[in-house]
Automatic annotation (TrEMBL):
<dbReference type="InterPro" id="IPR007372">
    <property type="entry name" value="Lipid/polyisoprenoid-bd_YceI"/>
</dbReference>
<dbReference type="Pfam" id="PF04264">
    <property type="entry name" value="YceI"/>
</dbReference>
<feature type="signal peptide">
    <location>
        <begin position="1"/>
        <end position="17"/>
    </location>
</feature>
<feature type="domain" description="Lipid/polyisoprenoid-binding YceI-like">
    <location>
        <begin position="21"/>
        <end position="173"/>
    </location>
</feature>
<dbReference type="InterPro" id="IPR036761">
    <property type="entry name" value="TTHA0802/YceI-like_sf"/>
</dbReference>
<protein>
    <submittedName>
        <fullName>YceI-like domain protein</fullName>
    </submittedName>
</protein>
<keyword id="KW-0732">Signal</keyword>
Amino acid sequence: MRGFVWALGLLGGLALAQPQTYAVEGRVTYAASYTLGRWEGTNTSLQGVVRWDSQTGEATGRVCVDLARFDSGNPLRDADARGVFNVSRYPQSCLEVEQLVPFGEEAVLAGALEISGVRRSVRVRGRLVREGNGYLFSGGFSTSFTEWRLIPPSLLFLRVNDPVEVWVEARATPR
């Protein structure tokens, strides 16, 4: 009988270690500046599907954002951003998720991010908090226009500065 109970415990432990598939939704916010000020733009179109093994940190999946949907509160600035991203040719920016490694409530999300046809590895440091059966990830990173071969928007003699700060808030719920 003890052997049967031990086998059930082992099978239960193996079942817990299996990767889980999550639907991901959220938002991306950027903060940019120029000589005379600073502003933020938010995009609530973040969505995708990720398969994650919480034991190993290994992950696969894709999470995308519609680049035309950034809202900074200034329609002209948002139109400039759509031009910088060339949304008619590259309407989405997507992250191919490769890893999510938690360290307590801290976590590092790693993957390959594509913006306007340029693909680069990124690491996003943040917090991973359990919410019922799902998770909330909040984190950010700094980047520059030149990393993505983008030309910073400008008006007369004012040009948007590097770096640009990017924050992600993503809620993952089991599928």
